[in-house]
Amino acid sequence: xxALDIINEKRRGRExxxxxxxxxxxxxxxxxxxxxQVSAFLMAVCLNGMSDAETAALTFAMRDxxxxxxxxxxxxxxxxxxxxxxxxxKTTISLIPIVSAAGxxxxxxxxxxxxxTGGTLDKLECFPGFRTDLSDDEFVxxxxxxxxxxxxxxxxxxPADRKLYxxxxxxxxxxxxxxxxxSIMSKKLASGADTIVLDVKTGAGAFMKxxxxxxxxxxxxxxxxxxxxxxxxxxxxxxxxxxxxxVGNVYEVMxxxxxxxxxxxxxxxxxxxxxxxxxxxxxxxxxxxxxxxTRAEKTIEDGSALEQLCRILDAQGxxxxxxxxxxxxxxxxxxxxxxxxxxxxxxxxxxxxxxxAEAALGxxxxxxxxxxxxxxxxxxxxxxxxxxxEGEPLLAVHFNxxxxxxxxxxxxxxAYTIGAADPGKKQVIKKRPEDFG
Length: 437
Ligand code: URA
Hints:
Blueprint: H1 3-11, H2 18-30, H3 35-48, H4 52-63, E1 79-83, H5 91-101, E2 106-110, H6 120-124, H7 136-146, E3 148-152, H8 159-171, H9 177-190, E4 195-202, H10 211-228, E5 231-238, E6 246-247, H11 249-260, H12 266-282, H13 289-301, H14 304-315, H15 321-324, E7 334-339, E8 344-349, H16 351-363, E9 377-380, E10 387-388, E11 393-399, H17 402-415, E12 416-419, E13 429-431
Parallel strand pairs: 1-4, 2-3, 4-5
Antiparallel strand pairs: 5-13, 6-9, 7-11, 8-10, 8-12, 9-11
Helix pairs in contact: 1-3, 2-4, 2-8, 3-8, 4-9, 4-10, 5-11, 5-12, 5-14, 9-10, 12-13, 16-17
Bound molecules: uracil.
Uracil (URA) is lined by residues 84, 165, 179-180, 183-184, 207.
């Protein structure tokens, strides 16, 4: 077997065997097959696609390239959740406390933000002292003791995906459904959960720009779950405008805490409760997703979800006082508003531009090594479907540098479309697991 023959076969459109795919993945991970050959292979995949069997072989080869988390010491059905990433997506910070308060153990491995999308680990680090580098033993012990832990994915989990993802980024081969599906599912399968709930974002601020492509990605991941013997349920959710009102690490954390205190914007609340209902159902603590949702609502009303977040903070090196009083968290030194240039209904708010504006303030990173300012961000005061008068504030900008605030304003000026017709409110949930049969 050699890499060149495999590349040629893929270029000609022939279906590769599992052995050929794992030869390529292992050879690349070990450093025996060079970048230029694997780039050519990835481009052939982008152009010719992959069969279900090939996608599964690629997923398993990446899953098996590193360690697989062993959660067998934790009793109960372990349910994991993954979002394909978006702007203002602080879902995990309220979801994990809710689901674990309802009795479903949550062993959540999360990532950092890159480009215009945020990451849960950065957000959690707004809580002073919060540790995102738990060892495997600490991670499992914490889930056994308090029912939940949220920590960073270590380098020895799916090293093949990490290397391939960086190469895809540099070779124009990110946007391929089999490559995205196998990348996400290899990580989820290596994370050790029994059941996986996926939030596939769709729209201008998401990887998948159209609902049709999002459905294709969701179906590919459900199929991979079936082949691997894991239940996978998918939601397709809107990412045309940012989720909720807060964009930027510390402001998103505050919004997530507010949700657990019974407040929070309607779209964010709807998404969290829908995902929670499904996870509680899949975790065997409700007879249906609707019943799971009622349970989720109860954990907010009775304060048990808030208490769970407090326990997570106490267990992971921070202190519950930051949840009980989010005014203690560090925020930006200055604030100013960004106003509507003319009157009318907000037709749309481009999530990607808002995400890039937050990054321009210093809250995002271009490369994994860039430092970020957790204290800057934006608070949306109006959303799609709201009527605004000329000069009325559309959002608040929280900043530490005049120059960066000006750069953010330039992006924000292009983010809003305001017109005469009332477009109505956006529905955050486009498709639920039952829509996939
Ligand atoms: N997220 C991933 O983890 N992988 C992809 O390929 C795209 C989004």
